[in-house]
């Protein structure tokens, strides 16, 4: 018995996720981007929604909470630090907490930056990380609310997770992330291989997630802000990695 993850598209470029605990039948949606695709995925699988786990307050991650809660009576769990921005939360969690879904457990990790209270959910037993907009394949989310220091610290905590971890992020941005990454790290063999794989997947109409965290550690410039070659690219040799991270983020914003 373990955890089954169902992946499906939602909105224009969001991913929807259902996680199903085989032992008990409990099923959670990771974020609530759009009710229709979530309900269709439940119907296709023959599952009943029992829980909703929310990562942050942006509308494309919370819009369907009300409808899903009304239909299924689901328990809604979300970040304590954004409780004033998210309607319908039943249980508030923060860094270091553990959420139970039947026999499955998810560690809550704070990842401020994209939003100040952003959290991610890590299922250690299955090796699943639901990173929403804190960590993308070959990228990270825009720094809408936070500052580079805390965001870099949060990213490093995700980088410290095992290489075998499968990462399920919030959006299909990998191809554009790859183009930017190659512009600042053109000699990275792992990045070039990943970019070619991404092009093949997208040409075939396939998603680029879940992605392997170990591979991303070698190719994602935001996970490599302490790499000398990236510091050199920005003329920041000897600078604190936080400064390099900020430069990479600004570069992507303007790319």
Automatic annotation (TrEMBL):
<keyword id="KW-0479">Metal-binding</keyword>
<feature type="binding site">
    <location>
        <position position="61"/>
    </location>
    <ligand>
        <name>Zn(2+) 2</name>
    </ligand>
</feature>
<dbReference type="InterPro" id="IPR001279">
    <property type="entry name" value="Metallo-B-lactamas"/>
</dbReference>
<dbReference type="InterPro" id="IPR032282">
    <property type="entry name" value="HAGH_C"/>
</dbReference>
<protein>
    <recommendedName>
        <fullName>Hydroxyacylglutathione hydrolase</fullName>
        <ecNumber>3.1.2.6</ecNumber>
    </recommendedName>
</protein>
<dbReference type="InterPro" id="IPR036866">
    <property type="entry name" value="RibonucZ/Hydroxyglut_hydro"/>
</dbReference>
<dbReference type="GO" id="GO:0046872">
    <property type="term" value="F:metal ion binding"/>
</dbReference>
<dbReference type="GO" id="GO:0019243">
    <property type="term" value="P:methylglyoxal catabolic process to D-lactate via S-lactoyl-glutathione"/>
</dbReference>
<dbReference type="GO" id="GO:0004416">
    <property type="term" value="F:hydroxyacylglutathione hydrolase activity"/>
</dbReference>
<dbReference type="Pfam" id="PF00753">
    <property type="entry name" value="Lactamase_B"/>
</dbReference>
<feature type="binding site">
    <location>
        <position position="58"/>
    </location>
    <ligand>
        <name>Zn(2+) 1</name>
    </ligand>
</feature>
<keyword id="KW-0862">Zinc</keyword>
<comment type="similarity">
    <text>Belongs to the metallo-beta-lactamase superfamily. Glyoxalase II family.</text>
</comment>
<feature type="binding site">
    <location>
        <position position="56"/>
    </location>
    <ligand>
        <name>Zn(2+) 1</name>
    </ligand>
</feature>
<feature type="domain" description="Metallo-beta-lactamase">
    <location>
        <begin position="13"/>
        <end position="171"/>
    </location>
</feature>
<feature type="binding site">
    <location>
        <position position="133"/>
    </location>
    <ligand>
        <name>Zn(2+) 1</name>
    </ligand>
</feature>
<comment type="function">
    <text>Thiolesterase that catalyzes the hydrolysis of S-D-lactoyl-glutathione to form glutathione and D-lactic acid.</text>
</comment>
<dbReference type="InterPro" id="IPR050110">
    <property type="entry name" value="Glyoxalase_II_hydrolase"/>
</dbReference>
<keyword id="KW-0378">Hydrolase</keyword>
<dbReference type="InterPro" id="IPR035680">
    <property type="entry name" value="Clx_II_MBL"/>
</dbReference>
<feature type="binding site">
    <location>
        <position position="171"/>
    </location>
    <ligand>
        <name>Zn(2+) 2</name>
    </ligand>
</feature>
<feature type="binding site">
    <location>
        <position position="114"/>
    </location>
    <ligand>
        <name>Zn(2+) 1</name>
    </ligand>
</feature>
<feature type="binding site">
    <location>
        <position position="133"/>
    </location>
    <ligand>
        <name>Zn(2+) 2</name>
    </ligand>
</feature>
<dbReference type="InterPro" id="IPR017782">
    <property type="entry name" value="Hydroxyacylglutathione_Hdrlase"/>
</dbReference>
<feature type="binding site">
    <location>
        <position position="60"/>
    </location>
    <ligand>
        <name>Zn(2+) 2</name>
    </ligand>
</feature>
<comment type="subunit">
    <text>Monomer.</text>
</comment>
<comment type="pathway">
    <text>Secondary metabolite metabolism; methylglyoxal degradation; (R)-lactate from methylglyoxal: step 2/2.</text>
</comment>
<dbReference type="Pfam" id="PF16123">
    <property type="entry name" value="HAGH_C"/>
</dbReference>
